Amino acid sequence: MRFTTPSGTTGRVSRGHRGAWRSGRACAARAQGLGTRLARRIAAKGWEIDCVVPVPDGSRPAAIQISAELGLPYREGLVKNRYVGRTFIMPNQRCVLQG
Fold first, then answer.
1. How far apart are CA 32 and CA 49, in angstroms?
2. What pLDDT digit, counting tens, does each position of 16-48 carry?
3. Burial letters for 7-23: b for 16+ Cβ neighbours within 10 Å, e otherwise?
4. Whole-structure pTM over 0.85, yes or no?
5. Cis (ω within 30 of 0) for the bond into 56?
6. CA–CA distance, 17 with 25 (Å, rounded to integer)
7. Taking the CA of residue 96 as centre, how many other CA atoms within 13 Å lie in the half-sphere pointing to its CB?
8. Which end of the chain is flanked by fewer CB atoms within 10 Å, N or C?
9. Which CATH number applies to 18-79?
10. Under a CB-based contact definition with an 8 Å cutoff, are residues 25 and 58 in contact?
């Protein structure tokens, strides 16, 4: 997915499992690099930040890197309920088959 920032910079966002590789580089390493670049931009802006919270879940590696670079606490503020609609936690087999 391509994007353009308000300053006119263009880029590409690709999501992948943290163990996945793209263009010979681990997706997690790419996300950490993005976190480092974002931390530099945040520091340059002089924003006052209390903590770093990843939103959505896929931004976790970048958020951890931003937290480390800026010396800010990392927190899980929003947690997705991964069990909504999952049939394996239904009370009986009949419910599982209906689900």
1. 19
2. 555 565 555 666 788 888 899 999 999 999 999
3. eeeeeeeeeeeeeeeee
4. no
5. yes
6. 12
7. 7
8. N
9. 3.40.50.2020
10. no
For the packed helices 60-70 and 27-45, what is the interaxial angle rounded to 10 degrees? 40
CA within 13 Å, CB half, 46: 0
52 near 74, Cβ under 8 Å?
yes
* Residue 83: Cβ-neighbour burial (10 angstroms; 0-12, 13-18, 19+): exposed
pLDDT (average), residues 1-30: 57
Q: Domain extents for the chain?
A: 18-79
- HSE-CB at 32 with a 13 A cutoff on CA atoms is 7
- Distance (Å, rounded) from C-alpha 46 to C-alpha 54? 20
